[in-house]
Amino acid sequence: MGKNFDIKDASLAEYGRRRIDWAEAEMPVLRQIRERFASERPLKGVRLSACLHVTAETANLMRTLAAGGADVVLCASNPLSTQDDVAASLVVHDEIPVYAIKGEDHETYYQHITAALDHNPHITMDDGADLVTGVLKQRPDLIPAMLGSTEETTTGVIRLKAMAADGVLKFPVIAVNDSDTKHLFDNRYGTGQSTLDGILRATNVLLAGKTFVVGGYGYCSRGIAERARGMGANVIVTEVNPIRALEAAMDGYRVMPMREAVKVADFVVTATGNKNVLDAEDFAVMKDGCIVANSGHFNVEINIPDLEALSVEKRQPRAFVDQYILKDGRRINLLGEGRLINLASAEGHPSAVMDMSFANQALASEYLLTHKGKLPNGVHALPKEVDREIASLKLKSMGIMIDTLTPEQAKYLASWEEGT
């Protein structure tokens, strides 16, 4: 590309730095890790390529990794999720190469991934497994020098476990998403708040009294359902897993097949990690004016080609709203091109919850280095003591104290002899 970055506009850097600093104030756990990293330099000499949403929170992770000695390069994990001012600040103020432009086309997106792989990383850091896929398919020459990878999100972990099952994953990967201090908080509270934020910014439509359908009932979906109910919506959950469907029913939601739910829906939001959760048969029975959005990682959850084939006209009444006019005159409003709506039209998860997620990412990269040669190829979770350390740091930053076991209690829990 002729230079070691590709961003929209370097003049945005000053505003980007202010927003990064604002986010940092809500990220005390990551800040403490950065202080230790700056002192100990545990990642010195490690080349690290990251493919993540380029947000103010991610910038603080990049700063932390760089403080630890890592030689970092960053590209976007979604064409619509980049905050151009943040990308500019990282390049201008932190001298971290960034390849990311909000709204970049398909070709540019993959050029940027190629640029990140051209960094010859020892560690890749993914949100959706695009870098790992690139290594395995296009750059197997990188594998001998790689310590491994870390993965941020559910969709990526699904892909990685499929790779491991097929025997093609040639290095260890830390599934950061499987840490309790990630998925129990980021997925539920982060996705819940940021998805509703994205929908409201895109539409400015009142949720109270509306029928709101959520596809899936994993941690992301249950966060969305909880927040939508909190804003007065009548929530319906759709599922394919009988245990999760039963859980949703006992949490007080209506549960039914998607084909039935869309008939009464004012909003439909998908967050399943699967494809074609909404397709032609669903669009055929939707109400006029239904608002459709996705909060899963990839835009395949909504079958957009099906929607386009059913339409006779497409217009944009608002930014981030594509209105498809069907042959019978019904209007279906697709938000953010079917991409992650919380990042397409809003700013992603709040900093306070990303604090824990990115603490996991930073410690996962250190874990790969300290366990070099000890981890078999495949998908691994971080040890539970890392989870507990992050949770303890978060509680301390919130001014919350908890009890500790007495020696007698600890002995009792570890024994079997003492009963009734």
Automatic annotation (TrEMBL):
It comes from the Bacteria. This is Adenosylhomocysteinase. It is an enzyme of class 3 (hydrolase). Keywords: Cytoplasm, Hydrolase, NAD, One-carbon metabolism. The keyword Hydrolase applies. SUPFAM superfamilies: Formate/glycerate dehydrogenase catalytic domain-like, NAD(P)-binding Rossmann-fold domains. Pathway: Amino-acid biosynthesis; L-homocysteine biosynthesis; L-homocysteine from S-adenosyl-L-homocysteine: step 1/1. InterPro entries: Adenosylhomocyst_ase-like_sf, Adenosylhomocysteinase-like, Ado_hCys_hydrolase_NAD-bd, NAD(P)-bd_dom_sf, S-Ado-L-homoCys_hydrolase_CS. Binds 1 NAD(+) per subunit. Its cofactor is NAD(+). GO terms for molecular function: adenosylhomocysteinase activity. It catalyses: S-adenosyl-L-homocysteine + H2O = L-homocysteine + adenosine.
